[in-house]
Amino acid sequence: MRFIRRYSPLIVALLLVGTLAAQVPANGASTASIEQLQQQIAEAKSNADNGWMLVCSALVLMMTGPGLALFYGGLVRRKNVLSTMMHSFAMMGIITILWGVVLFSLCFGSGNSFIGGFSHLFLNGVGAAPEPAYAPTIPLQTFMIYQLMFAVITPALISGAFAERMKFSAMTVFMVLWSIIVYAPMAHMVWGKGGLLNAALGGRFPTLDFAGGTVVHITSGVSALVCAIYLGKRIGYPRQPAPPHSVVLSFIGACLLWVGWFGFNAGSALSAGSLATSAFVATHFAAAAAAIAWAAAEWMHNGRPSALGAISGCVAGLVAITPASGFVGPMAAIVIGLIAGVVCFAMVVKVKSHFGYDDSLDAFGVHGVGGTLGAILTAVFATKLVNPIFKDAQGGALGSGMVDGNFSQIYNQLVGVGVAVVLAVVGTLAILKLVDMVIGLRVSPEQETQGLDVTLHGEEGYNWEGGVP
Amino acid sequence: MTKLEAIIQPGKFEDVKNALLEIGVEGMTVIEVRGHGRQKGHTEFYRGREYAVDVLPKVKIETVLADNMVDKAVAAITAAARTGKIGDGKIFLTKVDDAIRIRNDERGENAL
Known about the structure:
Chain A is mostly helical and 469 residues long. Chain A has helices at residues 2-23, 27-75, 81-108, 140-162, 168-191, 213-231, 247-265, 274-302, 307-321, 330-355, 363-381, 409-438, 445-450, 452-457. Chain B has 112 residues and is of the alpha+beta class.
């Protein structure tokens, strides 16, 4: 033993020399094999990323149906449960086709700084080859299907504002036009090549939006407010109560949203590495904090914490962490969640009743407000320690948010929020006017009173068994 | 004493309830029911199969009134529940022999 210990450095050295010597004669062959190994490693990494992104795509689809469909479906009255769930499900059909035909190209094709062009019309050129500007390790086709799920859920979120009173026909036309006129430019500006607000690809006003705070939640939330005001209140609102017909359904929906949101936020890393983990963790902490915050605020305000309050808080926290998820650590995520829970609670409970608009399912109060809050708080808590997105000329990391000492990012975030709000308000108003003229937006008062399930869809969510022989 | 049974459209229930409370009706029993009068039902489709739903959801309000309240209550209900279309519902009035408050054995109109 002593012999080995004493001479071990020598033995190691001899072994090393031996190994090196053995390699020298086969130098040419080993370069080739190293290249082969590197290629295999790259392939393995690419396959790992691709596998993760396919799972995330499925998770995000699960957010729309059944997640959002159940969440919203439970909140309406029994006579409108199917019509409300159909709002979400219809998007899974219609927007998917639209995405393949033109929407993906408008969002992510090469274009100007405001909207993509027609280079990927009918998914032309969308195949196994990656697009390095977006996601260098996964097929562009995977990126395409992942982004599709975002385009599906965004208009579905708006439907919470006009639930229980909009014509199904008008809703479908509205959603198609909205996706082209509002969603496509916003997605292109924030995430597309050459986009005005793109932080990763050197946009003019780099807005930090990791997973869609501006693109998804501010656009949908603000458009929801415009819809709620334009369509007017439901008959009897607010004098006649319209309580949720099944908080149980909403509860299941909210929990599915929470799980699906990991695909939404962690998937936005577009790879399976540590950034995805970081976003996953931030997402979870924010959701938990916001659920507690909303329930606690309610407890203090009404004397009781409700199940509906807790799940609403969780969704508000998920919304608020969305833009920040890939830029902040878990403790910052908790702070963002706590703020979102309290602020959205105040919006939904106090501000809405003060102004008297009928945002049936609080799409604006949760998504519009939560999204804006998240976009602004990203400027506070984003740190280069989590994600060094801003680089100087030498490739060194620059500060991201205020915690890094970068106080100017707040202006870019406000530009991003401003663009999203203006686009949503102007685009939505124009589309509503057009659809109102051509089709008419609201169902008749008789249809509304009887319920949209029977009058628009010819079926009921819960059948009376006595009626079936 | 008169028992009033009103069968109305479910969507009109809040209005009718508030109208009754306004004229001083102090209690009522409300039941979700299904039924039809001259109104035809509607059809529903499940995977192409047609189902005729001819008994429609209605709300039935039952309340027992002191006789001097009956006309006021009928007027309040018809005003609040009427759309002028078929299916608005009906009101039935029947005489009641007695009423007993279980808590303290009060009888007659005092028990209402």
